[in-house]
Design goal:
Radius of gyration: 12 Å
Strand content: 15-25%
Strand order of the largest sheet: 1-2-3
CATH architecture: 2-Layer Sandwich
Structural class: alpha/beta
Number of strands: 3
Number of domains: 1
Distance between the termini: 26 Å
CATH class: Alpha Beta
Length: about 100
């Protein structure tokens, strides 16, 4: 784990592709292929992954829940699971940016 903070800004997200690319880029993943939540989970949940940040801040999730609700639900699930697997990572969801 690194000491850095990652901010995932989904305030203007209007598509599945934008959401997944934004999440992938926030964690330093390449976006040159298919991006599914399963692929993202595999990378984030890998116990050997030492490049995860110490803190994750998500903005725009309420807007995402309106524009692309299925992606908001999937992201919440990923963050909840990541928090359970890696409790040393602080995860914050800002309701107002």
């Amino acid at each position: 784990m690194t000491s850095k903070q990652v901010t995932i800004d989904l305030t203007h997200a209007k598509s599945v592709l934008f959401v997944r690319q934004t999440v992938a880029l926030a964690f330093g993943m390449q976006i040159n292929g298919e991006l599914t939540w399963e692929i993202l989970r595999d990378r984030l949940y890998d116990p050997e992954n030492r490049s995860l940040p110490a803190k994750i801040v998500v903005t725009g999730l309420p807007n995402l829940g309106v524009s692309v609700p299925s992606e908001a639900k999937a992201l919440r699930s990923v963050l909840r699971e990541l928090g359970a697997l890696r409790p040393e990572i602080a995860i914050s969801i800002l309701l107002h940016s």
